[in-house]
Amino acid sequence: MQSPVPCPAPLPGGAPAAADRRRPARGRRGGPAATAALATAALAVVAAGARRRALRGGDRQIDTAHLLHSLVESDPEVGPAFGGQAQPARVLGYLVQRSIGYGLRWQRSVEDSGARCVVREAEAAAAGWSPSAATALARARERAALRGDPRVRGLDLLAALTADPDCRAVEVLRRAGVDPLVLADRIGELSQQV
Fold first, then answer.
1. Chain centroid to CA 33: how far?
2. CB of 155 closer than 8 Å to CB of 191
3. Which residues, in sequence order, are bridge partners of residue 117?
4. Among 35, 41, 85, 192, which one is most buried in terms of CB atoms within 10 A?
């Protein structure tokens, strides 16, 4: 059983209200806790991209597949972890199909791989994150802290995503032909180099 970790601060701008899901999230701002939770401009971009994808897809929450999609698409640091151009392209190709294929079974359902945060699921949901995504963000912060860095990097989040074998992000990786254990090893090697 995985040890519980604290859930991240709310998503910048908070969770979208049901009536708000169809409108772009303009002018919303998170407080200092939300900014600290993301810690870097790069991860703020990843979180915003994941949030847009969830809103566009009509999903109830931002899940780990949304985070993976945004991370692979926007953070140049994570590309080398895949060991070449082909794997990230396959992952993105698979993620693009979410709205027309495999992801339809995920719509209107909450991702919960069993990884638990210390705070209640309702709080993570109110912040707009699935329980698994909230746990991944918290673990990414822990990984950065263990490294002695207050800034959470894309590799920290990618490592946290690959650490949960039952989350949607890992399901996507497997279906795209990426071995999560090999990816985790590469992330570890790259983290040593930085």
1. 18
2. yes
3. 5
4. 35
Residue 84 falls in which region: left (phi positive, over 0), alpha (psi -120 to 50) or beta: left
Segment 2-61, tens digit of pLDDT: 444 444 444 433 433 333 333 333 333 343 344 344 457 778 899 999 999 888 888 888
Q: Which two tokens stand for residue 137?
A: 């963000």
Q: Which residues does 52 contact at the CB level (< 8 Å), separation at least 6?
A: 24, 25
At 101, phi and psi to the nearest 5?
-140, -115
Q: Tokens in use for 63? A: 């899940």
Report how far apart, in Å, the C-alpha atoms of 95 and of each of 73, 98, 170 are: 10, 5, 12
Residue 93 CB neighbour total at 10 angstroms = 10
Q: How far apart are CA 16 and CA 33, in angstroms?
A: 18
Which of the 8 DSSP states describes residue 5? Answer: B
Residue for token pair 């950065």: 144
